[in-house]
Amino acid sequence: MNEFLNPLVINDARPRSRGGRAPRLGENTAEILMELGLSHDEISRLTELGVVIK
């Protein structure tokens, strides 16, 4: 895996990388919508309609 150097420098030190990968498209959709107050049924319906990808 290629890592990119963080250009940010604070007090002559660079912040450490968190590592990992970016989420895939739709990977966190259900969790985010639930945090916004949607129910499982509402999220399922939006998925069926093609409004969201999960």
Mean pLDDT rating: 85
Kindly state the number of beta strands.
0
- The separation of the N and C termini measures 26 Å
Flag low-confidence runs: none
The amount of helix comes to: 25-40%
Give the overall shape, derived from the CA principal axes.
elongated
What would you note in describing this structure?
This protein is mainly α. The protein has helices at residues 29-35, 40-48. The chain starts with 28 loop residues before the first helix and ends in a 6-residue tail after the last helix. The model has no long low-confidence stretch (mean pLDDT 85).
Quick overview of this protein structure:
The chain has two helices and no strands. By secondary structure, the chain is mostly helical. The chain is elongated, with a radius of gyration of 18 Å.
Keywords:
mainly alpha; 54 residues
